[in-house]
Design brief:
Its main location: other. By secondary structure, this protein is of the alpha/beta class. It contains twelve helices and twelve strands. The chain has helices at about 1-20, 25-30, 50-65, 80-90, 110-115, 145-160, 175-190, 210-220, 235-245, 265-270, 285-295, 315-320; strands at about 40-45, 70-75, 95-100, 120-125, 140, 165-170, 195-205, 225-230, 255-260, 275-280, 305, 310-315. It binds beta-D-galactofuranose (GZL).
């Protein structure tokens, strides 16, 4: 709406200028209420984890702060719901569409519809595997391969003694960019130490209940588990419940490495139940609104904007826990 009213104002002003040499105000020439607010359609994955909740809050708070009119939808982790939401934003003629694709593939058709409607799309948090880079303006989010690598590198560093280390992996949502890339990065890093072996790997769908169920199965089928690599804190917290129910001590009998660094994860880390967390920042809202304004104004934006992130040991978690914003 913002972009269209701008074009309408420009056209009308040209007419006005030609007709009477004056310049019409935005409101009167475009025939709208002079509303120069940007309207963004945001199709969120769902509310599956503490990370997602923090990400939703960041997007909503930043939209308010930036004066962006935000239309928001929660897809309950279903791709068809995200596609429906994007189509409804196209119908509503929003100025820009932003979304976090729940899985990497199956987006070309709906993204082509947005392109044909001349509505720019910004990918935030997760990426798509489309070969057509003209279907979106930019990607804002983490380097998930790097996150998986950091998790694996810590384990290689910790496992000096040359004895077999049995690892079970609780993957994120099947087909999602973070699950694919974290798996890749972790496997790449642990190749450095042949004693480190992934003996089981299954998706917990980035949820606490999923992590608990998968860990219960791992404990039943694997007598000797030394390490859990969970693709997010929520799965790691579910694994802790299963490990304790099995009478073992999480963080000691079975070491746990996770990714995200949300409050509940950092609390478990500072209490010694998790051993290491790789940060994945959900606070993408401000950068998203800034990119949206640039895209609508026709300014060039980087193809990819990677977020700054760090890692936490148990000691570091104790120091920063109280000041963590989410
Ligand atoms: C990562 C994000 C992942 C988080 C999970 O950027 O897509 O999805 O790691 C969340 O906690 O569910």
């Amino acid at each position: 709406m913002f972009k269209k009213s701008l074009l309408a104002v420009a056209a009308a002003s040209m007419l006005t200028l030609t007709a009477c040499g004056g310049t019409a105000g935005a409101g009167s020439a475009a025939g709208n209420s002079g509303d120069d607010k940007i309207t963004m359609g945001f199709a969120q994955v769902g509310a599956e984890s503490g990370w997602r909740t923090a990400n939703t809050k960041s997007v909503q708070d930043s939209a308010k702060k930036a004066g962006v009119d935000l239309k928001f939808s929660d897809a309950q982790q279903k791709q068809e719901n995200q596609i429906k939401a994007i189509r409804s934003y196209i119908q509503q003629k929003v100025d820009v569409i932003a979304f976090s694709p729940v899985v990497e593939s199956g987006w070309d058709t709906v993204l082509k519809e947005a392109k044909n409607a001349k509505i720019p799309v910004i990918l935030t948090d997760r990426a798509v595997d489309s070969s057509d880079k003209t279907l979106y303006k930019t990607f804002l989010g983490s380097d998930f391969v790097e996150e998986g690598k950091k998790a694996g590198e810590w384990l290689v560093e910790q496992s000096k003694a040359s004895e077999p280390v049995n690892i079970v992996e609780i993957q994120g949502t099947t087909g999602s960019a973070p699950a694919n890339d974290r798996k890749e990065g972790f496997a790449e890093a642990i190749k450095a130490d042949p004693d480190l072996k992934i003996v089981a790997s299954q998706s917990g769908d980035f949820t606490r209940s999923g992590g608990k169920q998968v860990m219960e199965a791992f404990l039943k089928n694997n007598a000797d588990i030394d390490v859990v690599f969970a693709h997010n804190d929520d799965e790691g917290l579910g694994a802790i419940e299963a490990i304790e129910a099995a009478g073992k001590v999480p963080g000691k009998d079975i070491k746990i490495i996770t990714i995200d660094a949300v409050k509940d994860g950092m609390t478990a880390l500072s209490n010694g139940k998790i051993n290491y967390i790789v940060e994945c920042s959900p606070m993408l809202g401000d950068q998203l609104m800034d990119l949206a304004k640039k895209v609508i104004a026709g300014e060039s934006v980087p193809e990819r904007v990677v977020t700054e992130e760090t890692t936490f040991t148990q000691e570091q978690a104790k120091q920063v826990l109280a000041s963590r914003p989410y």
